[in-house]
Amino acid sequence: MKTKHFLMAILLSVFSLTAQAAGSPMNESFTNLIALSNEAIEVGNAGDAEAFVDSVKTVLTAIGEQNDQGSSIRLQRADARMKKALKAGKAGKLPEGIAAMKEAIVQMEAERK
Where is the signal peptide (predicted)? Predict the structure, then answer.
């Protein structure tokens, strides 16, 4: 009987942790990521491709950290746009990289559906 209660308590704990992890993106904030993205755009507008690449890498690192908290479709879409920006920046195509960063911001600011 005690074993049955113990197993039930463990199962309830596991389910509550899963529910919390699944629900965490609902409250996600992109404020920091948007600020970092805007900084990367400013650096790109200055014309320094290497600094732009470094800035985009910083944003991608921050996205990875936020993704550890809980992923969402908006975060995944923004991540894809930023990777596109990184690739463009490495190729020296700053206008394309800046455009991709702006698209990433649009994804992060999109209303949750």
Answer: 1-21
